[in-house]
Amino acid sequence: MKIGIDIDGVLTDFEKWQLDVGSKFFLKYNKNIVVPDGYDSDVVFNATKEMDSEFWNYYLYDYAKNEPARKFSNEVIDKLKNNGYKIYIITARYLTNRNDNLGKEMRKIVKDWLKRNKINYDKIIFSPEDKLEICKKNNIDIMIEDKVENINNISKIIPVICFNAGYNKMCNGKNIFRAYTWYDVYYQITNIINN
Questions:
Q1: Domain residue extents for the chain
Q2: Fewer Cβ atoms within 10 A, N terminus or C terminus of the chain?
Q3: How far apart are CA 142 and CA 172, in angstroms?
Q4: pLDDT at res. 128
Q5: Residue 52 in contact with residue 40, Cβ under 8 Å?
Q6: How many other C-beta atoms can be found within 10 angstroms of the C-beta atom of residue 70?
Q7: Topology of the domain covering 2-13+68-194
């Protein structure tokens, strides 16, 4: 069995990071959190695209290198691997699908981060935003995801564990199983497989 795992919002607490770091950054523009359940920082802080670009230019690499993995994520992934599951990291991290030096650098940062956080995996796929075709092509059996569009698309063909965030509260329905922690992910996978 193959389990697909997203990085941002699943292996990291992207939502909390964006609220914490964004509220510090956007204060210089007299901006505060307006839409706490938004996915993109320009929506969360009602910022212009220019302000949003400045924010990401300033913080992207710090986030990519230093944001810690969620508690117990490596432990649960090791349990899954010990149970015989194949782990596929499937990420649309910004820049990783580019075929230039910036793309190469970000792919290396991602791999180094996974190693440093002891996240073991069988394969890593740097994907476009829409992960449905990647899941089909790689015969993924269960996907762990946080982005609304991916949850809704992928759940049409396979079970998706929706890692809880304010911005994905509306995701529910057939093949969507909500999880709040990594041990909750383990529980959901066990129940999906046993039913």
A1: 2-13+68-194, 14-66
A2: C
A3: 16
A4: 81
A5: yes
A6: 18
A7: Rossmann fold (3.40.50)
